[in-house]
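Support reply, case 0932

Customer input (verbatim):
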Amino acid sequence: MSAPASLYRVLSRVVISSSSCRASLSSAASQKHSKRNLTSSTLHSARKEDPLEETSLTIRSLFDSKERNKGTFVAACDIFMKRGPHRRGHVEFIYSALKLMEDYGVHKDLEVYKRLLNLMPKGKMVPTNVFQIEFMHYPKQQQCAIDCLEQMEMNGVMPDTEMEHILRNLFGKMSHPVRKFGRMMYWMPKFKNASPWILPQVVPNDAFELAKMAVERMCTVDPSSTITIYQTSEVEDALEDTWIVSGQSTVQQELLEKHPPGESIKVEGPFRIHLRNKSVGYFVLRAEAKPKPPPPSRAVIDDVGSIKSWFTGELEPEETLLTQPCSVHEQEDGTILALCVTGTSGRDSLLSWIRLLEKSNPCLARIPVLFTQASPIGEVITVEPEKHHDEITAAT
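Our regenerated output:
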């Protein structure tokens, strides 16, 4: 056997052995990789099966309580707070809580909004440079805080200094939620004190108290207005037993006395006046608008045609006429003679109101009164806007 042939056999054996070693190493690596994948998939599946993982189902279960009040709402927030320092799913939890705040009656409670913002972890979301500030570091969390402030603004809840400290600890003093807080603190006090008719933060649910507040508010246009409480039981043959809150001024009584007996007046309504989140239906006694007086003639000063006024100083009769200014009750669409709120807003209660007004306005007995009620008969006091819309849709 020659030397090259023996060398070829030796080299071929080396190549075969090296290829077999490489194959065994690759198979071992693949087995190890498959084991590693199997282990990671097992951990991943175990993590998915973790009962503490936040899902929509678990968040819904926290607020699934028969007694919906502030105590149960705060208890749900405390349960979420105790789940760990990381508080995974806090953004989803806050959004779910914001949707349910009105159902629990805490949508106007500042302390509850503070508790929701305190659910976010503090420290790690504070930006460290100007680029993180302007490009909204942790945008999902910052937008969640802004939405929380938006809901406070929509419900008329004004934040305080403690709310500012919470936002600064979460996102820094130059973050977008802190800027939103600054805008709210600038505008909300202005709008809060803009109206001259001050209302309590929580208006009463009693329809009678709301009616008195509404009539007093509308009658402030005339300081001589008086508020009178009537009972329909004072009228003979009254079909409804309810109360009537009526408002009329001395100027309106004078306008009613000057009204021609042949011209009819109308009882119109109900119209709506809103007292915070409550609405009250009221009726008005309206007469047709009077024609406007002609504008005064403007004489030309340089005209020498009227020599009489030049020499004697006497003025013509049309030049001495005075135009009587209209009162606040005489509007372009008619003259308001009285207004009222009744307990039932029914036609019979309005008829009783006209009969009771005859005691202080005897001229009403000679004036025909027309009733143009535009709403269904029934309770229309303190109705929510959506419910009122549903009632109108059902009636039509």
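We compared this against your earlier run and they match. Two observations from our side: Residues 207-291+326-395 form one domain. The first strand starts at residue 226 and ends at 231. Please reopen the case if you see a mismatch on your end.
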